[in-house]
């Protein structure tokens, strides 16, 4: 594997290189999947990424990543979306890796980073609990130190890919007397440890992508605690920045517009001025989302850091996409409640999956209500 | 907003200085419902600052800059609610002359327009309004103009660039105020300024007055209108930014139920949604200025994108600001109403949101699935 200095390459050349690779190597039948693919579907593709040295675009090169700057990483993601490349269960790469690189000991890095990169360790994120969602700091899963092990009890929920995962990173309470945020630690757990039960949860698409995870006297080595005890909250919060921009990409909506247009034409709706006004409004919303995205992306590409106002991007992107799927349902008329692919003249379109897929984006990653709270306080400077 | 990327800092600072020195809300209130509705002395100051000539090439006595610079000035200028017709005269009217094909007339008028001595207005819309500059009923025949124009602003101009249909297709004539056969009636606008309803009865014109003719006239009108439309977006952005600032400040200080009303989540989320509309307006304007500077062929499409977003956002922020102010918001003494009314005028001028949505749909039919 030759280590290339991608950041020396100009943006356009890099974009074409990435695009060329996806075109050549990404399996055609996995392009633009209707729902989140499981590890069984994507592992061959992941292997190709590993062989190419592209499995962890955002990690530094010393740990086998591509060492991309935020700007180049954005281009990489844009090309993924453009080609319809599915996400693999990539929590270990996207969320855990950067956190370990920043806060873990050398020994922990050596132990966890290489197998995660190779796809031998598949991670899931155990933050949310039945009674701790938006108010995550009120989490109750507890980890008690017993000599050189932590004993963990409680349950996590909505854990994506828990049934595919070999490992889980969790936030657990290690000091019950401290203030809410200050008694929480960041721990790694092997999913094969006795006492772990995974109960998959069917979602609105009828598939099982997330799960509830029960932890009953689960023992994990004390040296698998990352950072310092009771510092877990600060560490987890420190790494939320980049998520906001990638979730704000206009690509999904732009692809959705093409789908919608096929329906609009086939249903003869271009003759309906009331519908066309709303349709045009939606198209303008998508266009202005793209302008907003490029405004923040330009900042990143110039090496600047994003301010808290980037939250607007998450709100605009997710809500625009929801409106799009709603208008698509409406345009489909009677077919707006029929599952599978429906034929609209020569196009065959899945109406329901995008509608369902649009729902959780306003819930996870800090719900849109929470984003509005943050904006009101941190950007608009409104009182509490 | 990341202003470190703003190359027009100095121009903006100049407007801020102007705002502190040469205008005030009191002045704006005093000029409401007066004739001509703005202050000629302030217009002179504006001209001395160079803003009337920003888009006029240096060879005609202007600064030879572009839409980006003009937008920065207009956005800041609009925050002051000054009624002086900077965009209507210096972008819309001056543009129709500049993009035309009468070199002698340009040499004669543009230096005076840049220096503020000549105040021009474009008389292009007719009784129904609308945004198609080629929908012209006014005729130029036998050396005379006959017809009527509406929504002309400034109404009290030194001369009017009048669009007409001639044997040669569209044409634009320069007509001095006071020309025989030209009469101006006034219609009040929501913000206390007034626009003109012009009637032309056998107004004699000669070729020297023909600012643009044939295909060039159509293109010159369209380009001037599109440029002014994007600039109206910049003005709306200025108005809505200031209105939102005022409203947020009121939310911090107005106390009910023992707390500032800005602590109520229902109002916080509403304010965030207004902020988002303002940011979308900024995004589309920024993109429009970047893209049209690189390639002017999409000017009309960008104009419609900018105007539809900024008109809707400006109106919404204006309306909801009244609601958030409560009773005082409905009182004339409260400044927030002045911002709503300016947003109403700028929104309707050159086509409101719905009009530009229709134009966008016509200019850019959706692309079907591949
Ligand atoms: C598809 C999907 C995948 C997920 N994957 C994972 C995962 O892998 N790992 C993980 O840890 N978690 C995961 N989550 C969980 C996700 O992070 C939570 O759903 C989210 O934090 C919201 O918590 P909650 O579901 O308990 O809703 P609640 O917090 O109960 O919220 C319910 C409603 O109340 C609103 N609300 C709550 N507080 C406020 C407030 N202060 N002001 C105004 N409104 C408020 C919310 O916006 C929401 O509309 C996933 C969720 C989904 C839907």
Report on the architecture of this protein.
- The complex is a heterodimer of chains A (384) and B (370).
- Chain A is an alpha+beta fold.
- Chain A has twelve helices and ten strands.
- The model of chain A has no long low-confidence stretch (mean pLDDT 93).
- Helices cover 51% and strands 16% of the residues of chain B.
- Chain B has three domains: 9-115, Butyryl-Coa Dehydrogenase, subunit A, domain 1; 120-216, Beta Barrel (Butyryl-CoA Dehydrogenase, subunit A, domain 2), CATH 2.40.110; 218-369, Up-down Bundle (Butyryl-CoA Dehydrogenase, subunit A, domain 3).
- In chain B, the strands form three sheets. In chain B, strands 1-4-5-8 form a four-stranded mixed sheet. In chain B, strands 2-3-7-6 form a four-stranded antiparallel sheet, with no helix packed on it.
- In chain B, α4 (67-79) runs parallel beside α7 (214-253), α5 packs antiparallel against α6 and α7 (214-253) runs parallel beside α9.
- Chain B has 370 residues and is an alpha+beta fold.
- The longest helix of chain B is centred in the middle third of the chain and has 40 residues, at 214-253.
- The interface between A and B is large, with 42 and 39 residues.
- Residues 124-128, 133-134, 158-160, 210, 360, 363-364, 367, 369-370, 373 of chain A line the site of flavin-adenine dinucleotide.
How is the secondary structure organized here?
The complex is a heterodimer of chains A (384) and B (370).
Chain A lengths: L10 H15 L13 H14 L17 H14 L7 H13 L2 H12 L5 E4 L15 E5 L2 E12 L6 E7 L10 E7 L5 E7 L5 E14 L3 E2 L5 H7 L2 H6 L4 H16 L6 H29 L9 H22 L8 E4 L2 E4 L1 H7 L9 H12 L5
Parallel strand pairs in A: 1-4
Antiparallel strand pairs in A: 2-3, 3-7, 4-5, 5-8, 6-7, 9-10
Chain B lengths: L8 H13 L3 H7 L8 H9 L18 H13 L6 H13 L4 H13 L4 E4 L15 E3 L2 E9 L6 E8 L2 E8 L5 E7 L5 E11 L5 E4 H40 L1 E2 L2 E2 L4 H30 L4 H27 L10 H13 L4 H11 L7
Parallel strand pairs in B: 1-4
Antiparallel strand pairs in B: 2-3, 3-7, 4-5, 5-8, 6-7, 9-10
Bound molecules: flavin-adenine dinucleotide.
């Amino acid at each position: 594997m030759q280590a290339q200095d991608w950041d020396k390459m100009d943006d356009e050349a890099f974009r074409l290189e990435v695009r060329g690779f996806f075109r050549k190597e990404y399996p055609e039948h996995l392009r633009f999947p209707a729902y989140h693919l499981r590890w069984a579907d994507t592992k061959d593709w992941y292997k190709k990424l590993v062989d190419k040295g592209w499995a962890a675009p955002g990690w530094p090169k010393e740990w086998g990543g591509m060492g991309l700057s935020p700007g180049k990483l954005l281009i990489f993601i844009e090309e993924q979306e453009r080609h319809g490349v599915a996400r693999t269960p990539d929590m270990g790469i996207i969320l855990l890796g950067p956190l370990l690189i920043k806060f873990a000991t050398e020994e922990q890095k050596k132990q966890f980073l290489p197998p995660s990169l190779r796809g031998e360790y598949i991670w899931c994120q155990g933050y949310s609990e039945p009674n701790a969602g938006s108010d995550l700091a009120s989490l109750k899963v507890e980890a008690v130190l017993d000599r050189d092990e932590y004993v963990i009890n409680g349950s996590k929920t909505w854990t994506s890919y828990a049934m595919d995962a070999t490992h889980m990173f969790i936030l657990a309470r290690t000091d019950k007397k401290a203030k809410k945020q200050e008694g929480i630690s960041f721990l790694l757990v092997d999913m094969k440890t006795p006492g772990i039960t995974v109960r998959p949860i069917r979602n609105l698409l009828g598939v099982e992508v997330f799960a509830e995870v029960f932890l009953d006297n689960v023992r994990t080595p004390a040296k698998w605690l990352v950072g310092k005890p009771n510092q877990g909250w600060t560490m987890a919060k420190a790494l939320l920045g980049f998520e906001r921009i990638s979730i704000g990409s206009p690509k999904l909506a732009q692809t959705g517009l093409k789908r919608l247009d096929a329906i609009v034409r086939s249903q003869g709706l271009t003759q309906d001025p009331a519908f066309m006004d709303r349709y045009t409004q939606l198209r303008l919303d998508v266009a202005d989302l793209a302008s907003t995205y490029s405004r923040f992306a330009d900042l990143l590409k110039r090496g600047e850091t994003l301010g808290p106002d980037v939250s607007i991007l998450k709100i605009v992107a997710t809500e625009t996409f929801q409106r799009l799927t709603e208008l698509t349902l409406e345009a489909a008329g009677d077919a707006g409640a029929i599952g599978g692919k429906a034929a609209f003249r020569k196009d065959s379109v899945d109406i329901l999956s995008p509608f369902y897929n649009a729902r959780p984006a306003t819930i996870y990653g800090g719900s849109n209500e929470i984003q509005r709270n943050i904006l009101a306080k941190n950007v608009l400077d409104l009182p509490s | 907003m990341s202003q470190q990327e703003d190359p027009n800092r100095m121009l903006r600072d100049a407007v801020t200085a102007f705002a502190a020195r040469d205008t005030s809300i009191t002045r704006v209130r005093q000029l409401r419902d007066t004739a001509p509705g703005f202050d000629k002395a302030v217009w002179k100051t504006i001209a001395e600052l160079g803003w009337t000539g920003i888009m006029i090439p240096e060879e005609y006595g202007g600064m030879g800059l572009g839409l980006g610079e003009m937008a920065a000035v207009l956005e800041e200028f609009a925050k002051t609610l000054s009624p002086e017709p900077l965009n209507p005269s210096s972008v819309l009217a001056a543009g129709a002359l500049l993009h035309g094909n009468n070199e002698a007339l340009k040499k004669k008028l543009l230096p005076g327009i840049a220096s503020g001595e000549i105040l021009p207005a474009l008389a292009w819309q007719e009784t129904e309004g609308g945004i198609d500059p080629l929908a012209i009923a006014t005729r130029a025949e036998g050396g005379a103009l006959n017809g009527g124009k509406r929504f002309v602003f400034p109404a009290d101009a030194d001369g009017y660039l009048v669009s007409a249909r001639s044997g040669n297709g569209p044409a634009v004539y320069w007509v001095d105020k006071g020309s025989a056969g030209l009469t101006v009636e006034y219609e009040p606008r929501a913000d206390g300024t007034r626009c003109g309803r012009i009637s032309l009865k056998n107004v004699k014109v000669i070729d020297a007055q023909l600012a643009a003719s044939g295909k060039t006239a159509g293109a010159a009108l369209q380009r001037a209108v599109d440029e002014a439309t994007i600039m109206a977006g910049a003005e709306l952005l200025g108005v809505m930014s200031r209105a939102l600032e005022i409203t947020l400040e009121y939310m911090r200080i107005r106390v009910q139920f023992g707390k500032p009303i800005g602590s109520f989540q229902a109002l916080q989320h509403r304010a965030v949604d207004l902020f988002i509309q303002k940011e979308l307006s900024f995004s589309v304007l920024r993109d429009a200025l970047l893209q049209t500077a690189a390639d002017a062929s999409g000017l009309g499409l960008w104009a419609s994108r900018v105007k539809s977003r900024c008109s809707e956002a400006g109106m919404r922020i204006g309306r909801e600001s009244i609601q958030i102010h409560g009773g005082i918001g409905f009182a004339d003494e409260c400044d927030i109403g002045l911002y709503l009314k300016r947003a109403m005028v700028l929104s309707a001028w050159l086509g409101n949101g719905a009009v530009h949505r229709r134009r966008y749909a016509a200019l850019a039919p959706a692309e079907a699935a591949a």
